[in-house]
Amino acid sequence: MSRNKLVVQKYGGSSLSSTNNISKIAEKIISKTNQGYMVVVVVSAMGDSTDNLISLASEVNSNANTITREMDILLSTGELVSSTLMTLSLISKGKNAVSLSGTQAGIMTNSVHGSARISDINTNRIQKELSENSVVVVAGFQGLNDLGDVTTLGRGGSDTTAVALAVALNAERCEIYTDVEGIFTTDPRISNNARKLDKISFEEMLEMASLGAKMNPRSIELGLVYNMPLYVASSFSSTDGTLIYRSSNMEIRKAVTGIAVDKNVAKITIKGVTDQPGIAADLLKPLSDAGISIDVIVQNTSSDGTTDFTYTVSESNLDRAVNLMNSLDQINYKEIESGKDLAKLSIVGTGMENSPGYAAKMFSVLSSLNVNIDMITTSEIRITTIINKNDIKKSVTALHDAFELEKP
Amino acid sequence: MSRNKLVVQKYGGSSLSSTNNISKIAEKIISKTNQGYMVVVVVSAMGDSTDNLISLASEVNSNANTITREMDILLSTGELVSSTLMTLSLISKGKNAVSLSGTQAGIMTNSVHGSARISDINTNRIQKELSENSVVVVAGFQGLNDLGDVTTLGRGGSDTTAVALAVALNAERCEIYTDVEGIFTTDPRISNNARKLDKISFEEMLEMASLGAKMNPRSIELGLVYNMPLYVASSFSSTDGTLIYRSSNMEIRKAVTGIAVDKNVAKITIKGVTDQPGIAADLLKPLSDAGISIDVIVQNTSSDGTTDFTYTVSESNLDRAVNLMNSLDQINYKEIESGKDLAKLSIVGTGMENSPGYAAKMFSVLSSLNVNIDMITTSEIRITTIINKNDIKKSVTALHDAFELEKP
Questions:
Q1: Would the CB atoms of A61 and B91 count as touching at under 8 Å?
Q2: What ipTM does this complex have?
Q3: Residues 6+ away with beta carbon under 8 Å from B399
Q4: Which terminus of chain B, N or C, has fewer Cβ atoms within 10 Å?
Q5: Which of B56, B60, B122, B123 to mutate to test the interface with A (most CBs of A within 10 A)?
Q6: A348, A207 Cβ separation under 8 angstroms
Q7: Contact call for residues A264 and A314 (beta carbons, < 8 A)
Q8: Contacting residues of B for A98, CB less than 8 Å apart
Q9: How far apart are CA A266 and CA A392, in angstroms?
Q10: For chain A, which domains are there?
């Protein structure tokens, strides 16, 4: 199926932090239309405006974050402001433009306020505006549920809006503009050898989502499922970014594509838990109820009928999680241990599939640096270790060398 | 027809200038529900937030005020913010509450962006929320047109929203809370004898619209036409306000109810205009095209085939209006004169109808003070003079005494 000569461009809040920046972005949008493209723009709220709204809400209601219907309406105004300002800027530069709210853009969602999922998109209004030669500026992050109430899509919501619209409009690609220049082999702040990738597959990007570009996994999944190429680049630089694409040739992929790091990691171990069905769910439910995300989960096999159960949380959630564990009263365990100042270090690459050699090489590099590995988990295309935060820099540098990531 | 035990309360921006004020207003709303009333609240945008949005818009587009579709979406966000914050505050105080945008409140308008007129109200959603025992907080000033675009109702728009909703919901009355304590016999800043009125008829209020309570004539007209009693009072004081009502007994009315003053007046006289049909329209059209409001218009009868044509504008528009007059090239006239530092002084009262004695008394009081009267116009229940701004204070004081307005 041939695609329309149309791109969806998404600009994040840091790219829209001032009216001056909005004007610069408007120029960038116009230059794309001058190349003969129809352009649909998706914007986030300006700079800190969302934080300011949250702060106002907490002043009138200390539990405002739990009243999600009202918070959704409140927060959706941030994107309405930035979309109208962008439209006014485009018009002032002589370009036809029109802003559309999520509702007007036809973005229908379920009713889970605060983290709604897009259920359908009716593109009639967008198509009409495009046919009149307008740039269409859509307020990101928001939609409408069946009750006629505004919903928001949660973290990374504007990325999701952009990819979903690109799919619905059969766009050539979805361009995500942000404050980094693309996807790197590892975090450039950690390793000077970090190299920007021209291309990366969806599968690898899913594993590397925390790498440089703070892209939300939902939008990457959408791109993967609907085969919508994503292009990640800098809002204010003209250097080429990174294309995230559906890999078609499984054989010529590089084994290891990048090294992902997350330095905000703490762990909790519940020792000597009676090993019975449902115990993991019982342990994790209080965290889920409290809205605490958990990441790596490791449960060792046991021989004496008990098991040690370990999981990681972000450091900021450690104290709350420990308190919740201490108040578990229907579960038998020996003791609870916690640790912080940890980091998650992963090597990612679709070429690694089924090749145990990569794990061995990774562990041997870390061993040669005297880095202690606390936990290990793997997926088909990723090997993740939990290590001490202080060991990250030397580990990344050595692994970047060992897997020759500086070479294209 | 008996009315529902329901009131619509409207709170203006100065009453919502901080989250602290929003909390105080929430208490006031709850005290009304504790009297057994269903309450629908209409809010304006917080304090200066509308000005801030206009300023952002002008930074990206110097002609932003002419791009009314985008400005309407932008400005409508101010009321969305205040309505959700009010709702969050009510909930934090234990009261069921829900915010509705103008769209959700079913307020349909025509498509004149920036000054749309309400065409219809579908109250289904409000009724549903009221039946679930919620306070319904409606974002004022806004509606939806047939294209699915947000519109705003122009100056005084939130008052209009409130009165229209009160009519549609068959409310007992519509309460307008503001930064003054009610309607006074004259401006309390000008005369110490100014007395707050317990009651005033719609007709009188229409003439006195500039008196103390900055109420928009549109909402008063709506109240008059649909016989919806309006109550104007202070947001933060518990003293009684003023009821604006449909006068039923024409005989027992007081002759003069109040004295209205507008100190922002300038005049333009076009002398020696050829007196022919259509000349007034030709003179005024350029002003209308430039969005300059004119107020008092006086045209003297003529005997020599020419006439002097005088009208007033606000002082801030004087220079622009004079320039427009000087560029009239298809109209014959002798000269253009202009004057500023003028004021409009009116006595208002339904009881004055057809009684020339009131005009005579007014002119004789002004004459005894050596106040020169520049222009005179009258309506059935109002006599208006244009005088020197410096003469206002003594004129108001003397007229207030002469018509015994200090007496209830």
A1: yes
A2: 0.76
A3: B259, B345, B347, B362, B365, B366
A4: N
A5: B60
A6: yes
A7: yes
A8: 69-70
A9: 15
A10: 6-245 (3.40.1160.10), 258-402 (3.30.2130.10)
